[in-house]
Amino acid sequence: xxxxxxxxxxxxxxxxxxxxxxxxxxxxxxxxxxxxxxxxxxxxxxxxxxxxxxxxxxxxxxxxxxxxxxxxxxxxxxxxxxxxxxxxxxxxxxxxxxxxxxxxxxxxxxxxxxxxxxxxxxxxxxxxxx
Length: 130
Fold this sequence. Notes:
- By secondary structure, the protein is mainly beta.
- The protein has no helices and 11 strands.
- Strands 2, 4, 5, 6, 9, 10 and 11 form a 7-stranded mixed β-sheet that branches. The protein has a 4-stranded antiparallel β-sheet with strand order 1-3-8-7, with no helix packed on it.
- A hairpin with a 6-residue loop joins strand 5 (about 50-55) and strand 6 (about 60-65).
- The chain is globular.
- The termini are far apart.
- The model has no long low-confidence stretch (mean pLDDT about 95).
């Protein structure tokens, strides 16, 4: 029902910035704004971890403590896009970043649990050099 494609990853020096994008293709009868959207990341040898999420309207966001104040998630429902602006990048931010769609409504999810997300992109790699 939803296909997600991430872009924007790459190599950046510590302290630098990157903006990740995720475009959604939604099947007929469904709307992008029906889904909360999240970003997760997975570094080699580590489990996938929550990074940030935004509710369907974009009015509410939540962040992992490790990125709070440095990363900003946003969405444009008219364009079926979700973004992750990453500033002050650290070597420990290096990972494959995935966007994901969650159909649970506000109040039914804190949007931080990966198993609650039904649709996932293929990921985009972020490398941070020290």
